Amino acid sequence: NKEASVAEVYLQACKLVGVVPVSYFIRNLDCTIMTLTHHGLGPLGCKALAIALSDMHINTLELADNHIQAEGAKYLVEMLRANFTIQHLDLSNNYLRSAGAEYVAKMLLDNISLKSIKLSNGFTDDDAKYFADSFSSNSRIKELDISHNEFCGKGGEHLGQLLNNEGLEVLDLSWNHLRMKGAVAFCAGLKVNMMLKHLDLSWNGFGNEGALAMGEALKFNNTLVHLNLNNNRLTNEGISLLCRGLEFNDTLRVLLLQLAFNSITVEGALALVNVVKNTPKTALEEINMCQNVLVNENFVHLLELTCQEHPGLDVQYGGVGGFIAKKPPKRVDPMKVIQDYLDKRKLRLWDFFRNIDKDGTMRVPVADFRKAVQQSSIPLDRYQIEELIQRLDRDRTGMVDYR
């Protein structure tokens, strides 16, 4: 049968090149997904694999962390030039270096089946040129992951040209070194791109100048729906520069701005909600500033007003800081409101929490808790919800522990 002959070809190839066969590969010859991550193939193991794969009909090949190097990539791309079934390929963490980048880029010019490829390999600025060239004429690939490389300013220019591509819909460029120069060059390409929907630029050190360039791009780009700018050294100034672009944008739905080293305060948070409030055609429905942004009473009030006009809006932030002392004297205890609500429906508080706590850990992320209460018909306003969260998460762990 077919599998037996492929196994035979593989075993002979291993013998020929002098490597130990991978038993997992032989056991799974009938699968359409071949996951061979962390198998220590090396260049020659990759050669034997490539020989066997020529006769196989798989659609996903995962080869991350196999130290295949440029030599292994060469054997692999020769096979991929003639293969018409592999649609998803992961070559991350394989020490491909510049020679490997060149081999892969050339293969992308010929291959007609690949739809997604992962290439986190510590590639440098010069290597970005190979990908820019190959993607300018390959519009079949929909998803590209080139995170965890070393693309800097010059790399940003090449990658900006890569955005001339007419097929790419998802691009992950996180954990590179684009910084201000690379951000400006890349955003120039984003301005005219007409296909990209999901873009991850987290951990790139954009700074406020990068935020200015992104704001400019968002004025013109009308396809992006999901933008991740987490951990990019933005301050309130950067947020306000970003907002200048958001005022003109009517497609972006999700904006992530979480920061490990936070320099956004309530001022930046207010600017973001104001943009949504004052832009009737905005598509924004999720803004995530995460756990360290503390807001105030004015913000909660503005969000309340904005949500009347944009009921689908979900803004995630750390909590309300320093206003509990000024709360109006006649405010009903939010815990009692929840208890009354549950009593009327003959439910237990336990049921309410278990419904949110899908993993059953008895701990619920603050953002999930906030969302669940907002989406339920419990008669609590945002002010009361924040008061409740402060009580349930006194130490600001970002989790509500309901034991």
From TrEMBL:
<dbReference type="Pfam" id="PF13516">
    <property type="entry name" value="LRR_6"/>
</dbReference>
<dbReference type="GO" id="GO:0005509">
    <property type="term" value="F:calcium ion binding"/>
</dbReference>
<dbReference type="Pfam" id="PF13499">
    <property type="entry name" value="EF-hand_7"/>
</dbReference>
<dbReference type="InterPro" id="IPR001611">
    <property type="entry name" value="Leu-rich_rpt"/>
</dbReference>
<dbReference type="InterPro" id="IPR011992">
    <property type="entry name" value="EF-hand-dom_pair"/>
</dbReference>
<dbReference type="InterPro" id="IPR002048">
    <property type="entry name" value="EF_hand_dom"/>
</dbReference>
<dbReference type="InterPro" id="IPR032675">
    <property type="entry name" value="LRR_dom_sf"/>
</dbReference>
<protein>
    <submittedName>
        <fullName>Leucine rich repeat containing 74A</fullName>
    </submittedName>
</protein>
<dbReference type="InterPro" id="IPR052394">
    <property type="entry name" value="LRR-containing"/>
</dbReference>
<feature type="domain" description="EF-hand">
    <location>
        <begin position="344"/>
        <end position="379"/>
    </location>
</feature>
